[in-house]
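Memo to structure team: turn this sequence into structure tokens by end of day. - J.P.
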Amino acid sequence: MSQAQARGPARRALIAGGAVAAAGAAVPLAVNAADGGGEPSAPAGGPTRTASPAAGRHPRTAAPVASRRPPASRRPRSDDRPNILLVLTDDQPKETDWALDRTTDWLGGNGTTFGRAHANTPLCAPSRASVMTGRHAHRHGVLDTRHPSYLDQRTTVQRRLREAGYRTGLFGKYLNFWRTGDPPPHFDEWLLQEPVRYVDGHYNDNGTVRNIPGYNTTVIKDRALAFIDASRQDDRPWFAYVATRSAHEVNVPEPRYARTPVPEWEGRPSVFETGKDDKPPFLRAARHTFAEGRDLRAGQLRTLLSVDDAMHDFRAKLRALGQLENTLVLFTSDHGLCWGDHGWLRKSVPYRPALEVPFRLSWPAGGLGAFRDDDRLTGLVDIAPTFLDAAGLPPDPGHDGHSLLDRDNDRDHLLAQWWWNQQDPRPIHSWRSLIGRTEQYTEYHRVRLDHAGRPTRGDGKVLFREYYDLRADPHQLDNRLHGASPAEERRLGIPGLAKRLTAAVT
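Reply from structure team:
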């Protein structure tokens, strides 16, 4: 039994009070989303199923609609390359499967779960640029959230796929501070939201800038479904990049989920850490509490319920089109988030809650259609090479990542990095970190980005270092370099790790 199957019934029991009353009204809209042609019949941004009168409750137990009707007519494909569906959430940490039972049933039960996946930069725009380019941030140049123009658009996976004959579409968040009126390069269709909001957003709709009422996840889901459905008339393989607002704070759940009960959370040792003398100065002063982390977690889970609905509808659409087997589906997040760990309630730090992300991939026609756990060290820089490999295209010589489709591709350490930027007036300092299977080594540098987003401020001096034994200390409570002697550092292998870290960023 999968983890989702174990948790799913418990969650459904919490929200099933209104399921029976609403199930009959839910079916017609779901049928249209799964089997009908063109746009769903629900208003743009509106729910795809009718909510129950009970606040925060929603039917989720109806049988799959696609099995109730004959398969829809579809145009034969002359190109056997896979479609590619990337669903990228925002600020979603790993321990959120409760809200995604149908997603984990699909991609976990019929695909590969990468349990050691990491963001290479725990900040939105740099991380998303790494997804698109397969490059670390110091090489693609987007180091903060305010300078998207530094991304070399010639290096993106969407350019490679489009030039190879793929139909490409972007739905949702692109890069922070992207000019709303500018089209995202190398996408045939788009519904780009900037600034990104949960409700009644401002969008660039294929070149027309307008406000669209409704909940972000539902609005972009409906447009992505229409893009996928267009393959009834267009036999090219397609690439859909779907990027939700969920689960970014400040969390605004869809109204039907606003009061949905979530499982109790008892925290973890890193949330209750008291002695922080071995942590960097900015973290010693951090005072966020367990209660704040618990509330943030609850808000994130409620927003992710709508993402789970979207994933259910994507699966139904692919099944109805006969494309479920030959579509590579990848679900992940741009980075994680701390829930009060070490007193911190944000991303931007080199600790597991901020760096580790959910990462599930399914592609039955490519041999990835059965349950499997993969414990390779994985980074978001691996996404672009994986997509190109699936499409039969050679990797870019500039890639820092590698294709996950080749089981021989592995690494013993993964690079993560972050720059102190203008959004943080209090000193945090830049850091870079080597994450291994059993240890993590981090250096904090006296460097800050200037107003142009370039690392020109500071002399680069190493100010603080950390080393954690991840096997004995998974919550990173004991910095083994705090008060360590030179002999102890040599025993831990610090000189070699420091050289490898320097080489990784040069």
